[in-house]
## 1
Amino acid sequence: MGNSGQAGRLCMRNMLMLTVFALSLIVSMPSLAATDKADLLVSMKILPLLAKKITGPTSFAIIYNPADTGSSEEAKGIKAILEGNFETPGNIKLISVLVPVNNLGLIADSRMAILTSGLKDYYEEISKISIGKNILTMSTDLACVRAGKCVIGIVSKPMVDIYYSKAAADTANIVFSQIFTLLAKQM
Amino acid sequence: MKRYRIVHVLAFLATSALVMPRCAYGQVVDYSSFESLYGQPITVNATGTPQRSSDVPANMTIITAEEIRQSGSRNIPEIISRVPGLDILRSSVNMYDLGVRGYQQPFQPRLLVLIDGRQVFNDDYSRTEWGNLPVNVDDIRQIEVIKGANSALFGSNAAGGVINIITYSPLYDNNKTANVSYGTQNTKSGDATFTQHLGEWGGVKVSAGAMGGDNFDTSKPPGESRFDNKPQHQYASSNGVFGLNSDLKANFEVTYSNSKQEGADLGYNLQNSVDTNYSIRGGFSWQTPYGLVINNNYFNHDYELADFSLTPHLNSLVDLYTSSLEDQFRIGKENTFRLAIEYRRKSINQSADNSVVQPQNDKLDDDVYAASATWLWQINDKLSWTNAARVDHSAIHEGGTLDPNSFVKDYDHSINAFSGNSGLVYRAADLDTFRLTYGRGIQLPSMIQNGVWFATPIVPGVVVNVEGNPALKPTIIDNYEFNYERGLPDIGSTVKWSVYYETSKDSISPPRPISSSFINGNVWLLEQALNVGDSHSIGSEIELMGKSQNGFRWDASYSWASVSDAQAVANTLGYEESTPVSHFRVLLGYTTGPWELDTNGQLVTSKDMLRNFQGTSYVNTPTAGYTSLSARIGYKLTDEFTLSLSGTNLAQAYTQNSPYPAIERQVFLGLTGHF
């Protein structure tokens, strides 16, 4: 009786662990994907929700890893999209700038930046520079936001979700409308 | 430490009994940017936090401006009746009531109606004058339809549901539109809205419109042909939003509306009425280090001259002053709170400008103090749990003098009511959302039911004496609901399914004969509203809606409802019999080039509704099931102008959808400009 009770408890515990594991898979965060046009469109729609409006010609940094072919290709793709027939809010005119991660000084005049894939090891470095220059950093890699190194995380498919690091925003002195900060999921 | 802080917040909520959010944002929210960002309509009104309708802890449908335009209708109840579970009771050209999941009755008291967060629900008889709303249909950004008890989230009287009409913002939108239309019943209407931005810091909007025409020519029962007010409506409104600095926005609004109509009244008779309303409103939203603070103040004045079956020329003056203050803030990453306090003063004064009704000097004042709190806990990326609670303390005073013959000698009394909502929303996968909700809603007795007195001699020697009943308890509605929503991207659709169970405790009847007595040689029949017992309902709704890349759109739904009344409820309110068991809706639309074609077909099964003929005999009147067909053809003449031909009840010349006179087919030709 005692053994069967113990076996029962063990079985229950295994079942519980299995359930927790299954649930954790279900509720796991969306994974990193290369930035595409849908993500960029979403990133533009965040701009009107900044407390300090961006207007006119605006430098938009595309930060990539030159040592990573995927990252380089992604950056070129982003630049092509932005320089194509790309809709921007208000009278913002984007000037896209490719910024290799080994030359982050090129980011200096940018108001915002998007991070390609392949930059995981450089988040700290990018963050240090972008925060100092009050640059709005955006990424489709939510790990960057979760680590407080990017301000905004973008998920555009199948539904739009915006993630937001209050710590990163506060440090970079980037202020959004308060209603936006209630809507965006804080990480 | 974090846990300690949360416990403190919870304790604060509990001890201060704060609970009660309202849609206080008004027009200071940039809906356009949020809608553009998320690719679908956003609401800020359920929890105070901006949310997609699928994330709201309540059963909410958002009808968009595009859907409103495609409906072809300029009557808001007709537009709303596309939502499964909403049943329309139309008793004339411009007299409507909407029942949520059954519970149909004239002067619907269970549905709270708001425009930009301002209550247009009238506290006199607890009803909404749908034909007298000060809003241009072309200026509506979205209509939020919330089913179920939501008093803690939206305010008292959100007992069975809420309709929140959101218009375009004068600050964030630039709506400039005009419409003229002409149609059957000699109906002529014109509406216009003009928005002027004042740089980047403010904007002002003005809307105005008018409608007039003839009645339906359907026959009326003997003795009711005098109820023949030709439908009319005029309105004007203006509002503005100003950014005083980057953190502080102030808003104002003034409205005026006037209407004339005939149709069903509280006692299930026909009536004539003329209504004149105006409102003044002001408030602010302020981003502070302690959260988003919102203040909302408004004054509604409603005047009605009603010609009831038994009570000719009864004047009702109703004033409502409301002031609320709320703070919305986040604690940590997962917890969002909204705390609010609200004061409302309602007063009613009735008089009769004829020699039949004994003129009185009674005046009822009702001071309502409410507090509420909402806590939205984003447990993880997929799961959120919202809890809300609200306390209302209503102190009612007789402000005038009562006739010595009044049966009730003292109307002073108070009512305390507690409402609550709890909702778990689980987005199991990107396309699947489950929602489990509970709501406890409060339907407060109307001002008339609470304590107004008037006596009318109906025949020589007999006086009907209608008095308020200070012993009335509020009706408590408990709603339990489960929803499932799934996106079906392969066919561009979404399917929604809901199942619910609802109980209504202490339903309040219209004034009914209680007793009789002899006074000065006359028989006085005392009529009062009473708590007549409980009612239960169970039901389900399923809806498939979507659109394709090649211009087709569809929305097909089926709703089933079964209501069970206690005997006294059946006799006096008749909810069980008046609820159609089944309601099918099929909306189909197609856009190609400059052309738009939309149809809306509905099939409603039979029902029996109480009907009162000349104020004395309540009859349960069968109404056969019916079909209705509405359609619109629109043609875009230029970038600015669209010509449309639309019609309602097209399937037959007359549609008998209630015990009231049949509804006639209507067709309109309209020209709309957007500038």
Note: Chain B touches chain A through 36 residues (CB under 8 Å).
## 2
Amino acid sequence: MGTIPPLRVRSGWHDPSSRGKGTTVTRKGFIRNIRPLEILTEDQIWQVHRATLDILRRTGVAFRSQWALDFLEGEGCHVDRSSMRVRFPESLVEACLRRVPSSYRVTARDPDNDLILGGSTLYFTHSAGMQTLDIDTYEPRDPKKAEYTDCVRVLDALPTIDFLSCYPYFGYEGLPPAMAIPESVALKMRHSTKHQFTCYSSECEIFNIQMAQATGQEITGTLTCSPPLTWGDDAVQAARRMIEAGFPLATVDGNVLGGTGPATPLGNVAVCNAEHLSMIVLVQLIHPGHRISVGHFACPMNMRTGSPAFGQIGGSISNVIWNQMWRHYRIPCSNGSPGYVDSKMIDFQAGYEKGIAALASAASGVNVMLLHLGVSAEISAHPVQAILDDDIAGMVGRFIEGEIISEETLALDVIHDVGPIPGHYLGTGHTREWCRKEQFVPRTGEQSSYQAWIVKGKPSALDHARERMTEILDAHEPEPLTAEQEEDIRHILDDARAFYRKRGELE
Amino acid sequence: MSNDTLEHLKQAILQYDGDAAQRWAKKAVEEGIDPLDSLAVLTRAIRQVGDAFGRGELWLPDLVGASDAMLEAAPIIQADIDRRGVERQNRGTVVIGTVKGDIHNIGKSMVATLLTAEGFEVHDIGVDAPPEAFIAAIQEHDPQILALSALMTTTAPQQKRVIEMLREEGLREGVKVMVGGGGITEAFAESIGADGYDPTAPGAVRLARSFVEG
């Protein structure tokens, strides 16, 4: 693999992971204050866990990386070289599970945007689309660079987006595929002060890491499994580089029920668990205690087309079981499927698909949820959809915050004071104090009186979202990078272009 | 009775029974049935399943079950064709593979199986295939059609890279490029300069037929 090339940056690297010591500033997210929705009994949790260990011990997981095979064999795993399959002793898996921190801080460019992943906290982020789309005709197309930038600015502005995820689009007009990820990471660093999760391709994690170091922030490196039960060499390589840089990791599955995973959510969770645990073992053996979270991205297969059926409820059943398992393991977990829908438009179908999936995931205790932005499966995404999703996130987040149980909220004194009609609660101090705390008022949902709605020209939530996008773009300008950081980013991107030219991946 | 044997062979495909398909294919060879007749039965059976799939009566697991069963029988029949030196009508030549970074096999193999059943000569270069491997296969087999698969949206841009390399190597004009995979759309196929796209395996076969039949 080789190590990460030394930084040639002027702004210099300071370790943001030390920022957590002595400070409590972070994004709040939503704190779940309700009992989690559960499907499994305690015995059934152990049944799934035993099944997972059985898969790891008997069937094993393929690592298409000679380095990983050598390393894991040296650590006591059974390695079949011909099939590149690794079989894991149960004791090793259990030991590595215990090494994973149950909650941890990750840093952002702005300390107010640091995150503490784990526990009862729910953070939201966005999904991604290959392209943007025209929201009048719903035809997908490549975004222009300015549209890509505007999308990132909207994501930075939305209060329920706690960090940025991979992309949001797979590229923009004129951007060569080889540079899609490094340019995307750079663009997000320039136009957002939030933490970001990054993906990898053709070793671009080298440049992602360097850009994070140059701008004094951490990035989380996602590691994507190739289901079923297979890790590619590129994932192993990216993991090693991120560990070397001291940056957190997030494994992601992606099993489609009935295609790359069993048709049954329970069996699918067992397979996915094995995929994640196999990488957790590798990571914890390389660096005990390394920060890592796990991401479930499951949905049924549309058996007529072979495409993932993102909007089907089966994905939520898998998410709820999954979340219960990883709360049991005490490892921060995320759900990806609420961010993707089968609907091809910003419409009723998109709303119910996202709303139901988001509520099921949040109520079952997930720590991170992809929700905003995705319009048509993984095909397209749009910031107007993200603005509508901001309201879904607000409502779902408010729901899991539950109710503070106290004498104050029980309101017995004010109930006695008000009594029957003509008494009312509108003029009480209790109402003035609590109505704002208790209510989440959607920003784009149509809330006017009927008459006012007629006078305003019968606007829809979509109309309000379009207006809000204009308002955000007129007003929101995140803190820019310093001149030195900007220059460093430019140098690193130049290095990336030279790297890909040399490899023949760029003209 | 050869008719009985061929009927059993057909039923084995329709019941997704690979063991039975293999057994009845061997029996057909033993009985000296013209292997082109046996192959025609396999093609009719798989087309019947494909048509029912197209009407929405059958689902993908049915299509995969039938094509897997056919994969058990087809090599036995093909070996008999080779042994007898029978000339098989070839509809055209296809190079197929899953692009670099993507190791998913199901969709690509299903299309390869159905194309074979349809009478195409198919060269499957496997999964995680770099653009150079597609170029080498085209130079070796001189196909009319190149079929590129990518299940993951993250690897879909690799289809574009292969098409770019075809242009760079001066091979683009001589081959029709069809693309497929879970995350691919008609618009995406157009945007990367592919000649055709279909979301289903039977549709991919229709597309291939249209390429060679003009």
Note: The first strand of chain B starts at residue 92 and ends at 98.
